[in-house]
Amino acid sequence: MKSFFKVISPEKLLSYKHDFLCVGQEKCTIDKCLERILAEDMVASENIPAFRRATMDGYAVNATATYGASDANPALLFIKETIGMGEIPQEKIGFQEASKIATGGMLPEGADSVVMIEYTDAIDSHTIEVFKSVAPLQHVIDIGEDIKINSLQCKKGQVIRAQDLGCLAALGFQELCVYQKPRVAIISTGDEIVPISQSPSMGEIRDINRYTLSAQILQNGGIPVFIANVPDNFNDLCAACEKALAIADMVLISGGSSVGMRDYTVDTIQNFDQAEILAHGVSIQPGKPTILARLSNIPIWGLPGHVTSAMIVFHILVRPFLRHLAGELNPPFYSQPSISARLTRNIASAQGREEYVRVRLEQSSDGTLATPVQGKSGLIRTMVHADGLVVIPENDEGLDAGSMVNVFLI
Amino acid sequence: MKSFFKVISPEKLLSYKHDFLCVGQEKCTIDKCLERILAEDMVASENIPAFRRATMDGYAVNATATYGASDANPALLFIKETIGMGEIPQEKIGFQEASKIATGGMLPEGADSVVMIEYTDAIDSHTIEVFKSVAPLQHVIDIGEDIKINSLQCKKGQVIRAQDLGCLAALGFQELCVYQKPRVAIISTGDEIVPISQSPSMGEIRDINRYTLSAQILQNGGIPVFIANVPDNFNDLCAACEKALAIADMVLISGGSSVGMRDYTVDTIQNFDQAEILAHGVSIQPGKPTILARLSNIPIWGLPGHVTSAMIVFHILVRPFLRHLAGELNPPFYSQPSISARLTRNIASAQGREEYVRVRLEQSSDGTLATPVQGKSGLIRTMVHADGLVVIPENDEGLDAGSMVNVFLI
What is the CATH superfamily name and number for domain A338-409? Predict the structure, then answer.
């Protein structure tokens, strides 16, 4: 028996992510940039709008000319022109003058506000009466009121949202510089594991981790690259690793990460000259038999073979690395969706490790309820029946029924 | 002036979604199915695992043979064989017999549990001592313990998650029947709107809604299809609509949905013989000038031209329609991520309409704080600076600083 030799806390493990550099950049047309990570600060190169814009149909006026106007005492204004949409007004507005304008139109020189058409009456084709005063800039978007020239709009390292695309489109950016999507290699190990294209014989089971891990990689901005199903054998695993290291920014090896008789992941990693094992064993449950190694800038993970453990280790540990490699900086504190719920049962937990409990959520008249899902960590069912995870901190002995918990949605 | 003729509540408008059928189905290989919507119930066609599986390295035994075993009084068992991974055991286990097995191995007939290797000692190559008793099924996953044959695993209409893919892979499904992605046509109207590929002259602005709406469509499982930038002119809008209706499952027309002099959306829709206007005007703010019409099974939306209004109307009204068309049934109650926060300022609101207030979130020692973002609904900046929306119900006059609110993340 080999033994665990480097059990560390999840915090310590996560701190290693800063030892890795993020991937390179690429140009991408703006319509392909949703949820990509921006690789440069975006500064406004112009004022938006570049002109005073009407936000109502009506008349562009100098506000002071309307002061005191009322039904009983309307202001009389002389019409200069009708301003065509998207066109430059031809006429200046003097004190008692107005030009007809529609929502979105450009205000003429001398005008600082728009009187809504509802508060005007046409006397003849050259004259209107105004029944209500407006304030300067009323019913107008001023120059630069939306976006000020030279102001920072979007930040390097942020995830690009729908509204960010709108802002960048407004500024005329047709291409953005984003980070490449990290390529994450997956190697599934186990003599008993067969690809799903193959009918398993008695004693064999289909490869599940390939699909759950691929999906988790996709959800976090990576490109999953499946390398192979590898039997529990040092040479085959070395060959698969070599292939993975040649093409990937990160490598996941599922199965074989523990210290049993068929666990070759540590040996395989150590077979690469430059590789350094940063952790073997993390104080979380499930997921203790997790390996993190580095080979130059590539994190290599040994993940537990049990599907639930592998998914939880991905969620808790691999995910922050992947998003770091992908170039994400300072994600918003709410970027991991969670929900507050009341626990319906006691949960016991051993001290000395952070425990992740799968829970099912339901709504009741008492608010949201979280019920632990029973079952071993080898059972995919327990993840299918779960809506989220509750964390029991390292030094707690458990949680009491009725207590409020924060459930991380999965 | 035309006038609003059918202002309805958002609830009433949303109820129309049930008048529309969802899109057709397609087969998709499982690696392409993440976040797609399942078009059929998935029932387990077999037991998983199909055999009793060891979850520890050790010896497969009949539990009763270990009862009472201790350091002082070990049980003596005779070794039958070493079970190769992925192989069918060759030997039955009798009462005082055991076979060596590794994690994931298949238990032989007669064995119901696994003794961990740590609690055994090899006397010679044929005999072991066992120092600890095991219970039946201990360190074993029983036949069907993960997935029971004939049990429902995933439901028609659900979004396929990572763990669902794992479950379906375990069952050997290589292709899934999912709903097609609805094609959503976008028409941007406005004489002053130019494509971002074009340099706007003074008085013109770039098309923003095309990009924000496309992104929102993508985020909700649709395929955005941009039709055209159309000037405010009945014939051009009719032509663009015709093109959109020929290829799309839903049509969005941004701008021209109000009752001003340049608003042609209603006229255009009415120009199609079979079209029926279901709503013109919704009691929400921003977003009142919203049109919903149907032409056979195609919802046609007239959205406000103001970018923020259009985004909020999409989020509140269009999104549920899109997800319904996409085949989604009974989404989990938490599928719209939200966060609880304390309001930092009073917000006033007019009665008689549901108001959506953009807020910025921050963490403080007092918990999460939500601060309203100031600015007109024509300003994209107000969405860029916002993290979420707070809803003020129709009959409330506002919200007080210090009150707890639910913020829908955007």
Answer: MoeA, C-terminal, domain IV (2.40.340.10)
